[in-house]
Amino acid sequence: MNPSEKAAYIRALRHAWRKENASQRIYANLSERETNPARAKVLFKLAETERVHGEQWARLLSELGAAPGPFQENPRERAWRWMLVQSGIDNALERIENDEDEDILMYEILAKMAPNEEDRKALLSAKADEAQHSSIARKATSEAVPLSPQVRLEAMIKREHWHKRSGGWIGQAIYGANDGLGAVFGIVSGVAGATAGGSAVLIAGLAGMVASALSMGSGAYLATKAEREVYEAEIKRERFELTDHPEEEREELELFYQLKGIPEEAARQMAAHIFENPEEALRTLTSEELGLSAQSFPNPWREAISASISTALGAFIPIIPFFFASGYPAVYASFVISTLAHFAVGSAKTIVTGLNPWKSGLEMTLVGLGEAGITYALGLLFGKMAG
Can you list the positions of beta strands (E) in the chain? Predict the structure, then answer.
């Protein structure tokens, strides 16, 4: 290995070392938040796998005379970990899983660069581990606690919903910021076109910020509350059916498990175990028949506060320059910071959507610029008509 090849190998290995350490912290945080003991155990196991990989690459780097020292998260890694964990465990796992192809490719490249067979085998082994992480996660319960019928049942239920896209309150916050930024940027552009950046821009922007925040907050509260009311009504209906026709409901649960590929006798035994506890039977039937779970309905007040604050913060960005300047200098400054904010919020949306952050950021930037162009032109037109 010549000096340039060695330097490239060290850079790639250091990148892998950082990724493994960052992933280890994410999995560890997720395992601490997980309330299901079996899933928490699996998440902890994944964290340990990443920790071992990180230690392997640290040893290889030391042998190459490039010991990395203790791992320290940079601000970007810390922010990404916090946002992933806040977005909900299922959503975080899906985001991580979407990065697996990149990690697998990374280890393929590293294996080709490796200077000896021992390193090559270690890197290919890490590649295999990365490829298996999603299947390990999906099997969170059946392998972890084999003696508990309820845990085995939950494994079957979770298997369907493990990858449910759910951004949690962080997703609500991102979309709130998106809405506030877009709405007030349009207002500022339109009024700036009509008044050449006069004092009316600040007034209109502040009014738009308050209106958008209140609208988003009340909408989030009412929507979440309505979902919970529907959920409670369905629970009440299911409870009545369970009390009035228990045999039919038990047979229905058996059929659900058979449709999942469970043998008839095993499905019958599982249903029998569940129906020994009426509350567990109710919860399971509700989940299987309706796809509902009490955990899937967030607190309406938390949703309202998150939506209001995030919308207000997003809406505040375009009017910041008008606190310090007026006229076209303020208009230009607002245009610049709003464009940058559109890209930032668009990129942040990938925590929920899983799309490419550059593509998502650019898409939102173009939409924001188009909106600003249209409203500015209309503002010019209305200004001339009023004059």
Answer: none
Q: CB atoms < 10 A from the CB of 271, how many?
A: 24
List of long-range contacts for 141-146, beta carbons under 8 Å, 24+ apart: 141/36, 141/38, 141/39, 144/37, 144/38, 144/39, 144/41, 144/42, 145/37, 145/38
For residues 177 and 189, give the distance between their C-alpha atoms in angstroms, rounded to a whole number. 18
Spatial separation of the C-alpha atoms in residues 165 and 330, rounded to whole Å: 40
Domains of the chain and CATH, by start: 3-139 (1.20.1260), 168-386 (no CATH)
| Separation between Cα atoms, residue 60 and residue 9, nearest integer Å | 11
Helices (H) and strands (E) in the chain, counts: 16, 0
For residue 270, how many other CB atoms are within 10 A of its CB?
A: 21
In the block, which residue shows the tokens 């979407």? 98
Angle at 51 between CA 20 and CA 7, to 5 degrees: 45
Residue 197 neighbours by CB under 8 Å, 6+ apart: 322, 326, 327, 328, 329, 330, 331
pLDDT in tens, the chain (387 residues): 677 778 888 888 888 898 889 888 988 998 888 877 777 887 888 888 888 888 989 988 998 888 888 888 888 888 888 887 877 777 777 777 666 667 777 887 788 888 888 888 888 888 777 766 655 554 443 344 333 444 444 444 444 443 343 445 566 677 778 888 888 888 888 888 888 777 788 899 899 899 888 888 888 788 777 767 767 777 777 777 777 777 777 777 777 777 667 788 887 888 788 888 877 777 776 665 555 555 555 678 888 888 889 889 988 999 999 898 888 888 889 889 988 988 888 777 666 555 677 887 788 788 878 877 888 888 778 777 765
pTM of the model: 0.50
